[in-house]
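#struct-queue
[09:14] JT: dropping the first one here, sequence first, then the structure tokens:
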Amino acid sequence: MPVNNEVLALILGGGQGSRLFPLTQYRSKPAVPIGGSYRLIDIPISNCLHADIRRIFVLTQFNSASLNRHIAQTYRLDHFSLSRGFVEILAAEQTPDNPNWYQGTADAVRQAERHFTRFETDYYLILAGDHLYRMDYHRLIKAHVASKAEITIAAQPVNTEDASSMGIFRFDHDGQIVAFEEKPKADRLAEIARSIPPGASFARHQPDKPFVASMGIYVFSRDVLLNVLRADSAADFGREVISGAIDSFYAANIILTQPDSPFSFYDPHRPIFTQPHMLPGARLNDCMAREAIISEGCRLERCTVEKSIVGIRTSIQGGSRISRSVLLGADFYEEDPEVSTPRNVPALGIGRDVVLDRVIIDKNVRIGDGVKLVNERGLLEHDGEGFYIRSGIIVVPKEAVIKPGTTV
């Protein structure tokens, strides 16, 4: 099946991303760095390209400058390709007939309709731009066509703890969706008990994962989607389909450092694409790194890194110990800090004798010598000077400065 001619992808750029604050203070969720060298938007776009889906619109609204720049600099498809592929931004816009911004996922697609319906296609693939997964969309679309479905929704089994932060399906004995509940609370989950009714044989039921959650991946036949958008004023396809909080973002990064990680950027056949940074290899001088990802362009001096991700262009000075932390890196190299940096302002990166444990360091941060960020008081939520604590994890926002000797 010539997927690239029959399928058009619409990737949703997400809302304000308040649950990922402060990482989303200056960028949208899909633009948040992941895995040291990538951004979340690279995941769905790469999955599309591997499935030969090369007509891709990304719908954006909040804090979209960083995302727009990344897409423009990364995904320049061949102008002379017969498939005429593209990855193009569709930004929210106010028009004479609709002065409102996007009100949700379905409303975003509805408002963008006049831009994408000019392309001939049989199927629309609608994706979230801020999820970490690997999927063969070609197989998904083949299943949609073979079953003569009007709408196909990808889902996954989840445990009770995760179900409370997701959109949960309920099915009848024939496997048809009969209800959708958004982020049901614990008492409601106890009442539902499971998404698949007892005795049903259409899917394998997992006792430890009794609920089925939407993954935010939809296949619509063309006429069905257009009819739904024109006849229905609903704002969302399923409201917020996957939670995106600081603790889940942190866990998704840390698990990448494990040899048995459920997601890997090292697949030889289906690589994840991103912007080529044109950086030298990481330089480590008398360092110890264990279960760590050290990205290109880093400079590490006599330090220890364990169970951590060190993003591009990160500088770590002597005597520092980094454990269970996620460093997003830097957008630039600093010239000689003794010349270019004002007095009493730490150099870009991690200074000398710094201790970090369960910390997320955003881009272009300056951590002074002797800083200790370990959450000594075990706080779950706290706003401090130059840092935040969310779910017990210390988060240092982009371009923040932590003064020498600071202890948290």
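[09:21] JT: and here's the second one, same format:
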Amino acid sequence: MTSSSNTAVPNPNAPTLASRTSQLRTALIAALVATCLFFLFFLGSIALQHRLQEGQPSPPVWFFLLGFGFLLAPYIISWLLLSNREQERIAAGAGVACGFFGAFVLVSPYAFTVTLLFVGMSAWNGPPNPGMVAAELTLLVYMVMSLWIVWSAFRIGKVQWSTFGAGVGATAFYLFVGFELLIAAGNQAQQQAEHNRVQANMDLNKPAMLAGQTIVSLTACLLRNHMLHPEADYPATLNPHPADWACDTNFAPNAFPGFTLEYEPLKDAATGRVTDFQLTAMPDRKGIRGRDPVMIDGRGIIFVDYPWDMEKVTPKVMVQQGDFFYSQIEALKRNIEQYMKEKNNRMAPATLNAEAIGGLGHERPTIEDGGMRLETRDFETLYLPPEAGNPGQFALSVQCKSYGQNCLRSYFADYDGSIHATGEPRQATSQDPTFFRCERFFGECPDIIWDPI
């Protein structure tokens, strides 16, 4: 007699097995359709579009194709094996389906929660995004289908448990190793996309940078010569340049692709002398992001006609964020005054220290000469301590170090609180004009006369 413990589990008969196999193949096709719909809804949703609009680099097409192929392979392999008449291959196909969709069942709570979070984010300031809602519903349907596929595959696997188990194990190994490789490839693709984005921005902005640097350098030369020879006029032309001109003047056609450089002397109406100038870098055409007309005059202030490159928007002549901001003279002055009020009995310190300097937004200077001098990359700041009889007053002199390269203007915060400025390569003094308020707010200067066409 045969022991009851050795009784084999009865396998389904041929018609039953064929019916179950056909149903599983149909379920695989339906699951594949649901997968495509989910990614279609998700990738087309507003939430993802906002992410792309914020400047996040998009991975290359090959990465999306690689991921799609990685997910598609188990569908195809399982469907082909289930289409065979041999029970061993049918069991293997059921094992592949069970392993693939079983893995998704395990991670489905996380996937559902993340997608639900996207739906909530899309509804933060209004109704939920329809694309994200559709993706969430599709994912819910896919989860139910996955449970049914796992159960159906398990029932078919009875025909050969060993082959079915091998299919499950092979699929689990494929998913584990494949996901690790896919993540590594995704990181590499993201890095490459970021590199390509940075390079594209550099290529786009390079002509504007070169043109801007050129007119800054020429302005520095003009102001330096004028400081050394105040009795002389500014040149009437730079093309050809004056015989004694010591600067490199490059106004040749196409010297800077995308821009045309122009020099305009400005004459005094009463004397007829050339007492000022305008150096302009003019884009050759509109519609290119980041390419706006730039102009510098005898004050050494950089103006930009913004947003000149946008259609149906009236541009304004604005002061480009520049030397006043990067000199940090106003922030430093304010921090010292706060230190005097809170910790020094309203007395100006004899020397500067880290506590008196406080926090500065752009660049923290190094303290030199026992607290009498501060250094940053482009500016040198001298601290002038209180004078006799005025213990609550101090002065600051901030001079441009990289003149004609990264800065033009220097500033002097006088004992009375006024701030003076000069575009010449020297320290500013109380005899120089006060700085222009438009330098502080990066706004329109009321006296500027410039109308780019």
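[09:30] RK: nice, looked through the second one.
[09:31] RK: The mean pLDDT is 85.
[09:31] JT: good to know. Residues 161-228 form the longest helix (68 residues).
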